[in-house]
Fold:
Amino acid sequence: MLFLISNNVSMKKFSFIKIFIVILLLISVWAFLIEPEIITVKHYRLNNEKLAGIRVVFVSDLHLKKSHQSKLKKIVYKINKQKPDIVLFGGDFVNHDSDDSLDIEKMAFDLSSIESRYGVYSILGNHDRWFGAEKLKKVLERNNIKVLVNSMLYTDIGTNRIYIAGIDDLMMGSPDINKTLKNVHSPVILMSHSPDIFPDVPKFVDLTLAGHTHGGQVVIPFRGPFWVPSDYGSRYASGFVVEDSKKMIVTKGIGTSIIPVRFNCLPEIVVIDFE
Structure:
């Protein structure tokens, strides 16, 4: 009798282990092979009279590998489908392993197909600087993508003059927010690769855009991001942030860094409609 009970318990335990292994395998397939390839479009509507009627598309952290040529074409297609007025890139175009990065000439050529009424602007991320900031900057600008490093440009849309400002990378560069915003006044959209600059952003900036965090890449249900590359923990992991009347959007980005995994943290293209 005791043998039968013991054998029954062992069988149940074995069945539980098999189920657990199957679930773990399914989660791994999803997290490593499926979710990282899904590109969603995240929409925001923001009230701002000075920017009303303008649509901005923001994309960051592509981390393009040699195998991502078709993925890049899909990204460009999705951007163009939004019919943007302005397209902004938050940096980290290249993969952290430069030997496995998509050729930057091919990358820039595909990005030159972006259809934006008032231009395409970008900043550089920490991986871009590891790769070679000046080289990448020249290739991007040769393909009509204006790269901002502690600098700004403006564009006139109707009777409105809109300033686009970009600060250098916080980790690998020399960010200078005062230099970046010198002689700039509202309306201004500020790009920073890392969201950690946000506490230092002056109040007259209408919107700060950032990436770098990837939303944590792995988000545990009911707990939040497993780890976020930020001095503020998960405070600026992703989404719409309002602090001290200032506004920031942090995108989850497109690619992955270090470990090619995403779980409960879908890649995204951000679309912002001002009204």
About this structure: The mean pLDDT is 94.
